[in-house]
């Protein structure tokens, strides 16, 4: 199957914020390039690819917030105790889902070899081949 079988969703229709839609487009291009290289683009992967992109956008957005505000937010001033940034939890959840989806698509290093088409090259002749070759006496 070719790349033309999977059409890119209209991210601007799905995401109200333009920056999210642009990030989704960048992620789509990156994932499709990896799938094209691996030769694993298929219609059956369409929904999985879309979910992967959505989780990557969520991760990107949450990571940006955590980078700006930190993992601990100022909490109750009387108790002087901070609270975990909820975006930190969202970032961790998105990361866990990304790992699973990338594995299903064969995009992570461990599963990449399992999903990629095997390319067989011509066997090169070596000097040892003639030495070990049985002789006809």
Characteristic terms for this protein:
137 residues; mainly alpha; two-stranded antiparallel sheet; 6 helices; 2 strands; 7% strand
Model description:
This protein is mostly helical and 137 residues long. It has one domain (7-115). The protein has helices at 11-14, 18-38, 46-69, 86-105, 109-115, 127-132; strands at 72-76, 81-84. Strands 1-2 form a two-stranded antiparallel ribbon. β1 and β2 (81-84) form a beta hairpin. α2 (18-38) crosses α3 and α3 (46-69) runs antiparallel to α4. The radius of gyration is 24 Å and the shape is elongated.
Query: What does the radius of gyration come to?
Result: 24 Å
Structural class: mainly alpha
Annotation field: number of helices: 6
Shape: elongated
- Which band does the percent of strand residues land in? 5-15%
Give the helices and strands as they follow along the chain.
HHHEEHHH
Mean pLDDT: 85
Q: Summarize the main sheet.
A: 2 strands, antiparallel
Q: Which segments are poorly predicted (pLDDT under 50) over 5 or more consecutive residues?
A: none
Alpha carbon gap, first and last residue:
53 Å
């Amino acid at each position: 199957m070719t790349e033309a079988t999977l059409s890119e969703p209209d991210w601007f229709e799905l995401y109200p914020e333009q920056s999210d839609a642009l990030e989704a487009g960048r992620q789509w291009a990156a994932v499709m390039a990896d799938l094209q290289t691996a030769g694993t683009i298929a219609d059956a992967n369409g929904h999985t690819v879309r979910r992967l992109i959505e989780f990557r956008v969520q991760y990107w957005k949450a990571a940006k917030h955590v980078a700006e505000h930190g993992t601990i937010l100022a909490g109750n001033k009387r108790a002087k105790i901070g609270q975990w940034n909820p975006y930190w939890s969202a970032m961790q959840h998105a990361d866990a889902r990304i790992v699973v989806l990338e594995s299903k698509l064969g995009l992570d290093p461990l599963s990449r070899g399992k999903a990629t088409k095997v390319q067989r090259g011509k066997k090169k002749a070596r000097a040892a081949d003639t030495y070990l070759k049985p002789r006809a006496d």
